[in-house]
């Protein structure tokens, strides 16, 4: 077994320290008289009691569950009015994304003095109540007939199964129910009343975390919070701002937050065009149903999961379907296009060079000319959908902006500060989220150790802890092996239940899924068993370069 300590070449030290820790009254400080030993591990000067979790998606719900089980005092903040994260489907769509040459509308000016309460009426500040509400919680980029691109068995939370006769290609609605069921089961869903008459109030929906600051003198984090509430009888929105203090914070806010608009020449001009009061060019985040595309000529921009799945949704309805795809060295060289299948109806066209300016902004884009990089031009397009991905760096700007992928340890702990801040940005929250939640709870209650900040940086800079994108299946498996080894070896020292590795039969389900849904003979049982025989140093390297990993 690869234990965390032997990985760092410190097995001797570990024995020393575990002895010392066992003798100490408060294991969580790992204090001995030997300063060189203390230097090896992260220590927390104060007991961690109050923990905030930001986001009630698959990751945040699991973190909150394990932190609660460790008897920490938890608050769970979610900007949406319900749990589910990305899987919370609504007919509501996000506020329109930002295009070049369009002034940003700032609806977010908080009062100077907190706590504060304001009431908004229709049209206050030039913004409708509906838009103010949608800006606040940001409806999700999922559409009505979205089918998960992972098998049912791999797209559910621990302890919550789908119905025995459910299809194994699960719909967004099934996944939404699964996540909500988990939230209710663990008493985190405050919509599912009564939670418990004497339970402390844990979850606050429609509550957006606006900022996160660490005090200079204290080691506590201050969250600035903003909640909106509909007052239907008076047709108003009630807005509240306040702050709360925490000893530790888990940021589980997801990766696909802000729609990425490609900066193609002329796109600002076209973005203002409307037909029948609707924009003709928009990001995929607002796509909901295929029926309105009946008989239309639709252009989808992009070649990844959204572009291809959306193309399959629209294809049976559209008159003509064009897809603008640019070459991608990794996708093309590594065969990842197996994961991104366009329907037969899709006509592939090259990347767009520019949009020729339009004079009339009310008649749609049909007469407009789109220049392609190969020198030709296309016209007669009814609607353009930008399936061009998402930016992650949208909230908590003061912290997130300087964040690099490598400022977060492989366990999720933030290394630029004392690691009482942690992120849950995993490719596979369904199985890694539980381990991560246990890791946060145990580190913060003194039942698992983290190396000192210096050692964490050394480990991360060595490059060993890059687990790749979701498509790096074996490397992702490696992350789970790391967790199981670390959590269990620490549990032997400090107590705590052992965690189970992934069930072996789940691999076969996954193999079958990939090989039948995507590419024949892509992966076999042998790949996994061979991987298991490899020492850590020989694990296959991620196949995407790390610069490409910033998707989280
Ligand atoms: C269109 C689409 C399809 C996908 N399909 C699949 C699939 O088939 N299979 C799969 O495994 N994965 C899929 N994913 C990935 C998906 O993101 C994960 O399955 C999963 O939802 C990630 O869980 P999470 O909890 O980390 O983040 P999320 O589910 O994104 O949840 C984050 C939560 O944090 C909240 N939040 C963010 N900022 C704040 C704030 N400032 N204050 C308060 N709350 C905040 C958000 O409202 C959100 O509810 C898909 C993603 C997209 C966009
Ligand atoms: N059914 C499902 O389960 C499902 C559906 C949708 C999304 N998802 C998930 O959602 C996440 C986001 O996926 P996504 O597809 O929205 O984003 P993405 O993976 O970031 O893909 C964005 C795509 O847009 C392309 N692009 C960007 N600018 C372009 C331009 N100017 N011209 C042409 N192409 C351009 C990119 O090309 P380059 O690669 O060359 O940059 C890429 O192909 C993923 O995790 C995915 O798995 C899942
Ligand atoms: C949490 O508190 C309860 C009640 O005091 C106790 O029974 C339980 O053992 C505690 N759990 C942990 C992990 O400390
Ligand atoms: C914390 O200290 C830094 C540097 O001394 C200072 O710039 C900053 O204003 C202080 N912040 C607060 C909230 O006191
Ligand atoms: C450019 O691409 C378009 C769309 O695929 C195609 O019809 C056209 O023939 C191409 N032109 C050249 C010069 O290759
Ligand atoms: C778009 O381009 C046309 C033609 O150059 C110009 O008349 C119009 O003002 C532009 N509109 C905007 C909003 O940029
Ligand atoms: C599985 O192993 C085969 C044979 O070594 C290899 O060609 C293939 O790339 C592996 N598949 C994956 C997904 O790593």
Structural commentary:
- With 552 residues, the chain is an alpha/beta fold.
- It has a five-stranded parallel beta sheet, with helices on one face. The chain has a five-stranded parallel beta sheet with strand order 12-19-13-14-15, covered by helices on one side. Strands 3-7-6-5 form a four-stranded antiparallel beta sheet.
- Helix 4 (58-69) packs parallel to helix 11 and helix 11 (429-444) packs parallel to helix 13.
- Mean pLDDT is 86; it is low at 1-31 and 546-552.
- The chain has helices at 4-7, 11-23, 35-38, 58-69, 129-137, 172-185, 267-270, 305-314, 329-334, 397-400, 429-444, 453-461, 473-494, 504-517, 525-532; strands at residues 50-54, 73-77, 116-121, 203-204, 207-214, 221-231, 236-246, 248-251, 258-259, 274-275, 278-279, 281-283, 297-301, 320-324, 347-349, 352-355, 370-372, 377-378, 383-386, 390-391, 421-423.
- It is globular, with a radius of gyration of 25 Å.
- Among the domains are: 47-98 and 128-258 and 391-450, 3-Layer(bba) Sandwich (FAD/NAD(P)-binding domain); 261-388, FAD/NAD(P)-binding domain (3-Layer(bba) Sandwich), CATH 3.50.50.60.
- The relative contact order is 0.14.
- The chain binds flavin-adenine dinucleotide, NADP nicotinamide-adenine-dinucleotide phosphate and 2-acetamido-2-deoxy-beta-D-glucopyranose (5 copies).
- The site of one 2-acetamido-2-deoxy-beta-D-glucopyranose has 6 residues, from loops.
Fold blueprint:
Layout: H1 4-7, H2 11-23, H3 35-38, E1 50-54, H4 58-69, E2 73-77, E3 116-121, H5 129-137, H6 172-185, E4 203-204, E5 207-214, E6 221-231, E7 236-246, E8 248-251, E9 258-259, H7 267-270, E10 274-275, E11 278-279, E12 281-283, E13 297-301, H8 305-314, E14 320-324, H9 329-334, E15 347-349, E16 352-355, E17 370-372, E18 377-378, E19 383-386, E20 390-391, H10 397-400, E21 421-423, H11 429-444, H12 453-461, H13 473-494, H14 504-517, H15 525-532
Parallel strand pairs: 1-2, 1-8, 2-4, 8-21, 12-19, 13-14, 13-19, 14-15
Antiparallel strand pairs: 3-7, 5-6, 6-7, 9-20, 10-11, 16-17, 17-18
Helix pairs in contact: 4-11, 11-13
The structure holds flavin-adenine dinucleotide, NADP nicotinamide-adenine-dinucleotide phosphate (NAP) and 2-acetamido-2-deoxy-beta-D-glucopyranose (5 copies).
């Amino acid at each position: 077994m690869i234990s965390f300590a032997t990985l760092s070449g410190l097995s001797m030290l570990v024995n020393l320290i575990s002895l010392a820790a066992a003798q100490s009254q408060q294991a969580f400080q790992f204090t001995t008289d030997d300063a060189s030993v203390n230097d090896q591990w992260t220590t927390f000067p104060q007991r961690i009691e109050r923990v905030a979790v930001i986001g009630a998606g698959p990751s945040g719900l699991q973190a909150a569950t394990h932190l609660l089980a460790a008897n920490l005092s938890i608050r769970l903040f979610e900007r949406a009015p319900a749990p589910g994260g990305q899987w919370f489907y609504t007919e509501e769509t996000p506020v329109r994304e930002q295009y070049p040459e369009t002034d940003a509308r700032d609806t977010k000016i908080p009062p100077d003095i907190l706590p504060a309460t304001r009431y908004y009426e229709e049209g206050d500040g030039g913004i409708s109540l509906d838009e103010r509400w949608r800006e606040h919680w940001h409806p999700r980029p999922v559409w009505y007939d979205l089918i998960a691109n992972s098998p049912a068995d791999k797209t559910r939370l621990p302890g919550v199964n789908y119905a025995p006769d459910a299809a194994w290609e699960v719909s967004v609605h099934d996944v939404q129910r699964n996540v909500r069921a988990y939230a209710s089961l663990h008493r985190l869903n405050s919509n599912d009343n009564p939670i418990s008459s004497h339970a402390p109030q844990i979850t606050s929906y429609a509550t957006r975390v606006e900022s996160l600051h660490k005090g200079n003198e204290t080691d506590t984090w201050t969250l600035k919070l903003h909640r909106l509430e509909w007052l239907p009888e008076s047709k108003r929105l009630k807005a509240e701002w306040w702050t709360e203090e925490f000893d530790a914070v888990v940021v589980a806010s997801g990766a696909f937050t802000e729609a990425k608009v490609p900066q193609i020449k002329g796109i600002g001009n076209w973005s203002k065009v409307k037909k029948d009061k609707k924009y003709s060019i928009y990001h995929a985040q607002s796509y909901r149903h295929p029926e309105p595309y009946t008989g239309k000529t639709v252009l989808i921009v992009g070649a990844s999961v959204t572009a291809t799945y959306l193309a399959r949704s629209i294809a049976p309805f559209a008159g003509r379907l064009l897809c603008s795809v640019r070459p991608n060295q990794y996708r093309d060289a590594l065969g990842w296009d197996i994961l991104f299948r366009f329907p037969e109806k899709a006509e592939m066209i090259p990347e767009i060079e520019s949009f020729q300016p339009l004079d009339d902004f009310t008649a749609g884009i049909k007469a407009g000319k789109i220049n392609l990089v190969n020198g030709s031009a296309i016209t007669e397009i009814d609607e353009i959908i930008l399936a061009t991905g998402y930016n992650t760096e949208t909230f908590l700007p003061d912290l997130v902006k300087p964040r690099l992928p490598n400022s977060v340890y492989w366990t999720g702990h933030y290394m630029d500060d004392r690691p009482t801040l942690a992120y849950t940005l995993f490719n596979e929250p369904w199985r890694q989220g539980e381990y991560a939640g246990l890791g946060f709870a145990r580190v913060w209650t003194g039942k698992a150790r983290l190396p000192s900040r210096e050692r964490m940086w050394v480990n991360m800079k060595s490059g060993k802890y890059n687990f790749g994108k979701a498509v790096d299946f074996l490397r992702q498996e490696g992350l789970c092996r790391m967790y199981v080894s670390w959590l269990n070896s620490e549990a032997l020292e400090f107590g705590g239940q052992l965690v189970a590795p992934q069930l072996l039969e789940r691999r076969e389900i996954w193999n079958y899924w990939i090989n039948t849904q995507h590419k024949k003979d892509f992966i076999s049982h042998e790949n996994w068993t061979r991987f298991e025989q490899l020492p850590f140093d020989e694990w296959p390297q991620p196949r995407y370069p790390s610069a490409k990993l910033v998707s989280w």
